Amino acid sequence: MNFFFAFGEIAFIETEAHPKGFPQLASVAIDQALNIANNFKLLAKNQAMKPFKYVNKGGMATVGRNKAVVDLAQPKLSFQGFFCMAHLDDLASFFAYRFQKQADSFH
């Protein structure tokens, strides 16, 4: 049996929830890579592969020197301006914790 694997910007996966494909973001590519790695393990054990499921973690960006923008997916919140920049470290830690928790669930 032959398989073809692709993830990140080269992968276009159409689903009911995402008819135009997934966002072209690094977090999506990382999640897809984890899914493929787990599917390789399942294939090695002759078990059925699991489909990719996208979970929006939100996003953040610095804008200029003293401003930032953060959009949280859960809970749905948005921050911007100096307040956001002042708490960017706390928010980065929050995102890192959530990502690590999700990554651990793949093992």
H/E element sequence: HEEEHH
What is the helix fraction of residues, given as a range?
Answer: 25-40%
Strand order of the largest sheet: 1-2-3
Overall mean pLDDT stands at 76
Low-confidence stretches: none
Terminal CA distance: 25 Å
Q: What's the β-strand tally? A: 3
Helix/strand-derived category reads alpha+beta
Explain briefly what this protein structure is.
By secondary structure, the protein is an alpha+beta fold.
Task: Summarize the structure in words.
This protein has 107 residues and is α+β, with helices and mostly antiparallel strands. The chain is 39% helix and 16% strand. The protein has 3 helices and 3 strands. Strands 1-2-3 form a 3-stranded antiparallel beta sheet. The model has no long low-confidence stretch (mean pLDDT 76).
Helix and strand topology:
Blueprint: H1 26-44, E1 58-63, E2 67-72, E3 77-81, H2 82-86, H3 88-105
Antiparallel strand pairs: 1-2, 2-3
What are the key terms here?
107 residues, alpha+beta, 3 helices
